Amino acid sequence: MQQILKGYENIEKALSEVGSKRYMLVCDTSFPFLPIKDCFHPAALFNGFTPNPLYEQVCDGVRLFNENQCDAIVAVGGGSTIDVAKCIKLYCRMDHKENYLQQEYKDSGVPLIAIPTTAGTGSESTRYAVIYFEGKKQSVTHESIVPNYAVLEPALLKSLPLYQKKCTMLDAMCQCIESLWSVNSTDESMLHAKIGLQLIMDHWHGYIEDNSEEDAQNIMMAANYGGRAINISQTTAPHAMSYKLTSMYGLPHGHAVALCLPEVWVYMMEHTDKCIDPRGKNHLEFIFECLGQIMGCDSAYKGLMMFRAIMFSLDLPSFKSNNIEVDLDILSKSVNPERLRNNPVWLGDVVIRRIYNRIII
Ligand SMILES: [Fe+2]
User: Fold this and answer.
1) How far apart are CA 323 and CA 44, in angstroms?
2) CA 109/CA 144 separation, integer angstroms
3) How many CA atoms lie within 13 A of 339 on its CB side?
C-alpha cells in the first residue's frame, strides 16, 4: 500500500522508513536548481536519459544501480524521471543478458520513493511507465512499480515554465475526465477522479495566473488523485489519439491530449446509442451530467463548453500541418485499438479520421 506524504520535511521520514543504506537518486537536469537538492546524499546519481526515455538509457541506470550495490531508488522529477526509476526497479534483479521487455515481470522488492516536480501525470501513484524501444512506445505495467512512497511538495512547481504548467495541468484534468467515463471505472476510481477534477476547477486559475502556493498545493493533489484514478480505470480515446500528435508535431503530452478530449467528448455525447460500457447508455449519460456539475454547469453540454473555454483562456500555441491528407492517413493508423476498448463509445476508423481532421485543421 502506497503512502502519500505532503511536504519536503517528509523526505527524511520516507528515507528512514525504507531503511536504505545506499540509495540511487534518479533525477533530470533541473535537479541542481531545486530547493530540496540538499536533502539527498545518494550512493549513485543517474540522470542519463532524455524526455522520452529510451530502453538503452534505462539499461544504463540498471547497470549503475547494481555496480553501486544500491538498495533503494529515489526519483525526483517529472513523469519521465519517475517512469525511468520504475523501470530500473523492475529490471534490476532480472536476467541482464536477455531483453528485459521480453522477460516475465516480478516484484524486485527494491523500495521506490517518488517526488514529482510537475503536477500532471500522477505517475508517482500509478503502475505504468512509458519508455521507447527501437523507436516504438512501450507501456510497462506492473503492480510492483507503484512507488512505495509519494512525497508531494508544491514548492517544486514554483519555477516551472508557464507553458509546462498549463500542459501538465491539462494532462491531470483530462486524466480525471477520462477516468470518470472509462469502461473500467469503479466507485473508488470515480471518487478519486471527481475529487481531482473538482480541485482543478477550483484552483486552476490561481495556479496558472497567480502562481499561488495554496493553489499549487491543490493542483499537485489533483494530479495525484488523477494518477490514482487512472491506475484503476486506465485512460481512454483522447490519450490513445494523443501520442502520435506528440511525436508528429512535438506537442507536449498534456497539450496533445487536451486537443483530442473535447472532440471525443462531443462525438460521444451525440452517439450515446453506440455505448459499449456494460453499464449501458444511462450510466454514460449520468457521467456526462456529473462532469457538467463538477465543472460548475447546469447541463452536460455546458460542461464541455466550459472545457473549451478553459482551453481558450490558456492561449496555447498553435501548430500547423504541412500536408493535412498525408498527416490524417498517418494519424488515423496510429491509434492502438487495444486502448480504444476502454472508451465508452466505440470509435471506428472513419470517426477517428474525422476527429483528427477537426484537430489539425
Ligand atoms: Fe496523461
Assistant:
1) 47
2) 8
3) 17
d(CA 104, ligand 1 centre) in Å: 26
Measured between alpha carbons, how far is 361 from 346 in angstroms, rounded to an integer?
A: 23
| One domain for residues 299 and 206 | yes
Overall size of the chain counted in residues:
361
Q: Spell out which residues have Cβ within 5 A of ligand 1, the ion.
A: 171
Residue 301, number of CB atoms within 10 A of its CB? 15
Quick one: pLDDT at residue 124? 97
Is the same domain home to 88 and 199? no
* CATH number of 275's domain: 1.20.1090.10
* Backbone dihedral region for residue 315 (phi beyond 0: left; psi -120 to 50: alpha; all else: beta): left
> What is the per-residue pLDDT for 361?
75
196: left (phi over 0), alpha (psi -120 to 50) or beta: alpha
pLDDT tens for residues 294-341? Answer: 999 999 999 999 999 999 999 999 988 999 999 999 999 999 888 899
pTM over 0.70: yes
Give yes or no for a contact between 161 and 191, defined as CB atoms under 8 angstroms apart: no
Alpha carbon of 17 to ligand 1 centroid (Å): 30
Set of cell numbers at residue 266: 462531443
Claim to verify: residue 170 and residue 150 sit in the same structural domain: no
Cβ–Cβ < 8 Å for 75, 114: yes
Per-residue pLDDT tens digits for 155-198: 999 889 999 999 999 999 999 999 999 999 999 999 999 999 99
Each residue's pLDDT tens digit, 4-62: 999 999 998 999 999 999 999 999 999 999 999 999 999 999 999 998 899 999 999 99
- For 81-131, the pLDDT digits (tens) are 999 999 999 999 999 999 999 999 999 999 999 999 999 999 999 999 999
User: What's the CA-to-centroid distance between 172 and ligand 1, angstroms?
Assistant: 7
Domain-ending residue, one of 156, 184, 208: 156
- Residue 202 CA to ligand 1 center (angstroms) comes to 20
> From ligand 1's centre to the CA of 69, what distance in Å?
33
